[in-house]
Predict the 3D structure of the following.
Amino acid sequence: MAKASRSKKTKAKAPPPSEDSDFSLSSLQEALDAEKRFAASEEQLLHFYEQMLLIRRFEERAGQLYGLGLIGGFCHLYIGQEAVAIGLQSALDNDRDSVITGYRDHGHMLAYGIDPKVIMAELTGRQAGISKGKGGSMHMFSTEHKFYGGHGIVGAQVALGGGLALAHQYNEDGGLCLAYFGDGAANQGQVYETMNMAALWNLPMVFVVENNQYAMGTAVRRSSAETEFYRRGAAFRIPGMDVNGMDVLEVRQAAEIAFKHVRDGNGPVLMECNTYRYRGHSMSDPAKYRTREEVQDIKDHKDPIEALKKMLIEQGHAEDDLKAIDKDIRKTVSEAADFAENSPEPGAAELYTDVLVESY
Amino acid sequence: MAIELKMPALSPTMEEGTLAKWLKSEGDEIVAGDIIAEIETDKATMEFEAVDEGTLGKIMVEEGTEGVKVGTVIAMLAGEGEAMSDIEAPAESEAVEDVPGEGKDVGRDESQAEVTRPALKGDVNDPDIPTGTDFVSLSVREALRDAMAEEMREDKRVFVMGEEVAEYQGAYKVTQGLLDEFGPKRVIDTPITEYGFAGIGTGAAMGGLRPIVEFMTFNFAMQAIDHIVNSAAKTNYMSGGQMRCPVVFRGPNGAASRVGAQHSQNYGPWYASVPGLVVIAPYDAADAKGLLKAAIRCEDPVVFLENELVYGRSFEVPDLDDYVLPIGKARTMREGSDVTIVAYSIAVGLALEAAEELSGEGIEAEVIDLRTLRPLDKEAILDSLAKTNRLVIAEEGWPTCSIASEIIAICMEEGFDHLDAPVTRVCNEDVPLPYAANLEKLALIDSARIVKAAKKVCYTE
């Protein structure tokens, strides 16, 4: 990651936790530092690998379909960031918890195991798409999975997520809301309005900054006075966590710690997942704000899928078995792309539907 | 089977580009994610990444070629176990199977859209008030409070949030007593943070609750209008009907008294222009109660515009257990045959005053209270126009792009044959509202101006 070296505070003589008023703000980080990686079973590891690879292959194909003119408008790919969605969402209680995110939302949908066909068909604007083709890449939802979108206004999903968390608390359903936003959205005022209220009202909410280092074309250091985003909750007494978003096991471990904290009634958590977006901000981004070498270096040394693949091989999995997984996923994605290309567009009769629920 | 690599479109508008450079040569192994070529358009140079794996077989378009159309086959990729020599270049005249971006043209028959165009509303009327029903005198403020309290008793999902709504009992005392009855879980004081709490209210509605979000005044909702328009109004449509957002945004709207330009504005036309919203602006206490109850029960997001100057006025309200009025239905406040005056909110009172004065001069005006600004009750307006053939709109707000402008357009398009005079609007002056008492008076609509306009369309002046 292109992060500047951290100036970790070195406390000469740290007071015991009970007397340290800032302990609560760093306690989750300390818990993570004590045990960095989630002890996944072999089955879980394979599942993480499959899910991350599915996102990658899906997004590569989406990029290709965009290039062929089958996907229009804006299309923001998740390639490089796969470990964040999989690490976090694999730790959710899907019967209770809700998720909301911005416009880079394909990966979060796939992490739920939602059929890639209906996601791809939404990208191509077809009737079979999950939003009947009326939402597009940035606006996909699955209330069945408690996935609340898919929002195009930078930072708006954070306040909406605060509302979902309020509903969990109000209904006493034991659920929490996971609200994702980027390093760009992290400079929006409403994010902090929401942090204030979430802390004030002790809402069950995890704020996740997916720091992919660039807000469109602006590097973090050019847009943010405090680039360590996990510290930004301190003003509201929200504990922060600094997480390597390129390691699915570290993300999952952080999720375990954060979710427990929230479920125990301790209020919101702010987690920063440091990750990297391989592709442009959207498909029409020539990416002149960074060097090809920088991108290649991350791909060569920090890729979350390659790292997990290496781990699986070290554990004794045959490379051919992993290749077979890749082959299956390619087939799934190809089928999704064929479906998305060959499905009919929405009928004209859809134009006026869903504007209002009731008729007046 | 060999895979065709086609010239990609790198932006929504790109039609052709220059194949600037090949970064791979024939015979090279390609892995997904490899950058294989550079493409130039008039705007930028972009990288072309491989999605498929294989061996680069034949390069069909040499580097440096300009004006390569999107979709042209630029190279062939041999799959696993496929000999490069097997690769055949595609025939040049190969037909394009599907036009990019066009899909299967099933949605092109425009007449089909008419099927779902919102139909003209059927005959929906206010509920009958049984003979013998008592009427009680209630202020608009009390009527609004009662509406909220009744709905909160009936439905545990309903709660109120906003600045000073709980312990302070409401900045304008509309939420008086609610905290005592319902407690702090359901009557929530927020910090002064409109954008944030409008978003939280909207999100809570998406999460299944029925929030009433109070803005101390709608002037402050300017901070929050993004959530009202982009989050609340559009999400049901964007989700293909999956996402519900039954939230009510309410508070005083329009000019108050001597509070200056930033605190005196009518947002009715702003919200009424947004598909996906319901916009209600009642005048009297009975409508305030019946329509707020309807708004809280409504499955759609509602903007409910009150008026500070009317809060303290008392009106007769039927003493019924559950007085709910239909949304989208105007009300005839006074029958008349000579001219129609259409108004909403505080201007209804001015229109009624004007009608009294006109009556003294032998002109009988019909006064229509729109009550709902979106969806607008066009039928009621056009029916009255057909009866009186003359129409004036009275609106406490700016004239430009107003509800009045909209009604004039409707009358032109759908009521032209009934018009005996140009439709006329009486609005505030087109200036920010001044503070000085005399200037404020000059800027705001009053009944004398409505009288004058009515006489003008009756050609008596």
User: Anything to note?
Assistant: Chain B touches chain A through 88 residues (CB under 8 Å).
